[in-house]
Design goal:
It comes from candidate division WOR-3 bacterium. The two termini are 14 Å apart. This protein has 11 helices and 5 strands, in the order ααααααβααββββααα. It has helices at residues 6-17, 36-40, 65-76, 79-99, 135-151, 156-162, 170-187, 192-213, 251-262, 299-311, 315-332, and strands at 167-168, 214-215, 220-221, 223-227, 230-234.
């Protein structure tokens, strides 16, 4: 949006920041007007704490705000807009560091699968003990989890003590790190000392990503979950595993990620990049279901990986991802997700906002 209608992009940021809570929290959904079907089937009530605000959820999403702010500035050079909003965005990142890092390892914990933005990804079967990878079982666990959180008024202390779901996700933390890096760049125009401090903060996060998520045996990144003060790896190759490529990481990691990405046994399908490696037993179902993120291709994750390829000067691979991604939209439209083999969309939502990121690849 910043490339075509920057004024709309700025309003979008300001609208999101308008519901920011005093502690810095920003929700993943704002309910402006409830549709009739939402009133008849109030799925959302479990994700809301009416004692705080009935019009916002209690969950977060991957923190793209810093990245978005930088994109807007690069397009508009509107320093006044940045000065008016950067401290609020920083406040959100401070919230994540303060409230969502109970083990103080510089990595943010998510407390529901939905907070990852990849709701039913099979990596989340593991913390729930779902060894069969039946998505219906994970869905039932999520329903029970939300009931408990609702009962506890979404109190983070109780949630982390319960160890029901405490996950440090690779993609979420890679986006978190990139957002901090973006804030540091923006602060160079406003406060150089703060810019330096935030750059050091982003470097600490990146170091933790490389140390804690890297799996030497498989030469890929895996997320981690916590249970009763112990840490466990979630060894399923998903699109999340590739996300550190968006960061300034040593070439040995980039080379390994590209080997996985270009393998026809893993992520290189007719319409890449599938959200789960095709050689995983947990791959699927795909487009004829609402158990999403179990192998389908998504434009927003393709965009992030493409940005990473550009950053690492892997121009040939960038052009391939660009061509394949644009061909998806030309074939099926701006849809929520796509079959990685046929490019069809099945039960996906149409006219889906995330998929318009493909326009940035033109």
């Amino acid at each position: 949006m910043a490339n075509f209608y920057p004024e709309y992009a700025m309003k979008e940021i300001e609208t999101l920041l308008s519901v920011q809570q005093a502690n810095g929290f920003i929700p993943h959904i704002i309910f402006w007007n409830l549709r009739l079907r939402d009133r008849l089937h109030p799925w959302w009530r479990k994700e809301v704490n009416e004692k705080v605000n009935r019009y916002i959820t209690c969950e977060i999403q991957p923190p793209v705000l810093g990245i978005s702010l930088l994109k807007i500035y690069e397009r508009t050079k509107n320093i006044e807009f940045i000065e008016n909003n950067i401290s609020k965005v920083e406040h959100f990142y401070r919230y994540l560091s303060r409230e969502r890092d109970p083990d103080e390892d510089n990595l943010v914990s998510i407390i529901t699968p939905m907070e990852s933005g990849m709701d039913m990804s099979p990596q989340f079967d593991i913390p729930f003990g779902n060894k069969s990878n039946n998505p219906g079982i994970t869905k039932n666990h999520i329903t029970e989890l939300l009931k408990n959180y609702k009962k506890w008024n979404w109190n983070l202390d109780k949630i982390f003590q319960s160890s029901i779901f405490n996950v440090e996700d690779v993609a979420f933390n890679s986006i978190y790190c990139l957002g901090l890096e973006a804030l540091s760049k923006l602060y160079q125009c406003i406060d150089r000392k703060k810019s330096k401090d935030i750059k050091e903060w982003s470097d600490r996060v990146k170091e933790s990503i490389l140390v804690k998520f890297w799996n030497k045996k498989n030469k890929i990144f895996f997320s981690i979950f916590h249970k009763n003060k112990e840490e466990y790896t979630m060894p399923i190759k998903t699109i999340s595993s590739l996300f550190p490529i968006i960061l300034d990481i040593p070439e040995k990691y980039t080379n390994s990620l590209l080997e996985h990405l270009t393998s026809k046994k893993e992520f290189w399908t007719e319409y890449p990049i599938p959200s789960v490696s095709i050689d995983e037993s947990s791959f699927g179902p795909l487009i004829d279901t609402r158990f999403i993120w179990r192998g389908t291709t998504w434009i927003n994750t393709n965009w992030f990986i493409a940005e990473g390829l550009l950053r690492h000067k892997r121009y040939k691979m960038y052009r391939k991802i660009r061509e394949k991604t644009l061909s998806l939209v030309l074939k099926s439209g701006f849809n929520e997700f796509y079959d990685p083999f046929t490019g069809d969309s099945g039960w996906a939502m149409r006219n889906f906002g995330w998929s318009t990121l493909s326009v940035e690849l033109i």
